[in-house]
Write the structure tokens for this entry.
Amino acid sequence: MRAKLYRVRGQSTLKGKAQFIDLDLEFEGQRAFVVWDCISVGAFKLKARVEIDPKLLRAEPGRQCDFVYNGELVLPRPENN
């Protein structure tokens, strides 16, 4: 069974400039995750997910996304891994 795919929009700061980013969003029960990266390895799909506070999601179905996230989203940087 496939989970329904949602899109979430958040705001990010890159080099001192604010920009909007759109990410995939998944739910597991009461928990919410943004999908930061995804790769296929043979028949398997590996996902790098970051858990977010679902209370900070606001439904926005008319803005080219399903939700807007009003919290701080700290994504890992490849150079730090």
User: Anything to note?
Assistant: The chain has one domain: 6-80. The longest strand covers residues 17-28. Residues 37 and 48 are 5 Å apart (CA to CA). The chain has no helices and six strands.
